[in-house]
Amino acid sequence: MTVQEVPQGRLRTPFYERMSQLDTLNAWHEWKGYTTPDALYCGETEYFAIRNATAVFDVSPMTKYRITGPDSLAFLDRLVTRDMMKIKPGRVAYAVWCDDQGQVLDDGTIFHLREGEYRLCSQERHLDWFMASAIGFNVDIVVETADVCGLAVQGPTSYSTLSGLDLPGLDQLKLFDLMHCDFEGAELMVSRTGFTGDLGYELWIEPGKAEALWDAVFEAGKLFGIRPIGVHALEMARVEAGYLAPFEDFLPAKGTVRTGRTRSPFELGLEWLVDFKKPNFNGRRALAEEKRKGSTWRLVKLNIEGNKVANASYIFETHKANKGNIGFVTSAEWSPVCKQNIALGTVRMPHGAPGSTVWVEIYYQREMHWSRAMAKAEVVDKPFWFPPRRSATPPGPY
């Protein structure tokens, strides 16, 4: 087993200079050691680039692991809950991995680059867990976070924008497909993936070609409303898509000190990622027991009355807050495209079945005055935003 260490210190991505030239707000934060924009000019305006045009987000700080070797497939199949045997070369899998108690450590995407060669991307760092899980496997694990940079190119005109780069096969790339092509003598990997729930792609290339790629994408998109975006806009889009974020909608299992604060895949609405037909995987016994006995928590998607965003709100079975809460909101937004007050939350079973009604206790401040409202909410079982263009192949011009 070969292992390479994670880069440390205050870091800037290969796209930082291009982003800083467009920055008007000086609103940045640290993402795993890298400087990342909250917004570059206006978070709300940047959001509309995702839904109406082409939005570009720098995903270079994503933690990236190259996994190779004779046992690479066997290792990954043992590590995650879904059946990796079904993920052929040229495909991307969304996956979760659990501890021995069946509690989610993290979620991420696994790119099957070529036969026996994989890249795992996650928000958090898991080198220690991967090393322990790789004992007994003939596998190489290399941290390549600093060696591969990435751009998420998302939105209804993203296909029209990237068509200007002359990428053979782009029109036939299906959702969760990937392909390799040449860009100025370097290998460019294009995947039809993203964190917005819309039509979109991710571009992965070596750092030396980063600025050239940025310039080429923005030149190709100048007639299609292309804009760079920050985390605020992306956060609005991912809640609309119903996507989960660690430390927002769940706590990674190794990051807690109290029992009952973590979640299983079943409790996060990810039962479709758990394949008991596999002979073994981390957490299998605990998850089989949970499936037999039932879960403690349930993830819910909420359409909430009114326009007061339900950040960090308690959820109740009735409009009477003195009856005791049944859960709480984890992520909330006012959705401009849905014209709806939406939220993700977690409630105790058996509450929160799709189609049921719950109540949300919302506190909000106006002109230094705090007010409280009990808002009725419907539990829905579909993403708030899932346009047909997201999976259309080929995507039509927009």
List the keywords.
single chain, 398 residues, Elongation Factor Tu (Ef-tu), domain 3, globular
Q: How would you describe the overall organization of this protein?
A:
The protein has helices spanning 16-22, 43-52, 72-79, 127-133, 158-163, 210-220, 231-241, 284-293, and strands spanning 2-3, 27-31, 34-39, 54-58, 63-68, 92-98, 104-114, 117-122, 140-143, 149-154, 178-183, 186-191, 200-205, 226-228, 297-304, 314-316, 325-335, 340-348, 357-366, 369-380. Helix 2 crosses helix 7 (231-241). It is an alpha+beta fold and 398 residues long. Among the domains are: 2-62 and 146-241, Gyrase A, domain 2; 296-380, Elongation Factor Tu (Ef-tu), domain 3 (Beta Barrel). Helices cover 18% and strands 33% of the residues. The mean pLDDT is 95. A hairpin with a 2-residue loop joins strand 2 and strand 3. The strands form four sheets. A six-stranded mixed beta sheet has the order 1-9-5-8-7-6, covered by helices on one side. A six-stranded mixed beta sheet has the order 11-12-13-10-4-14. The protein has a six-stranded antiparallel β-barrel with strand order 15-18-17-16-19-20.
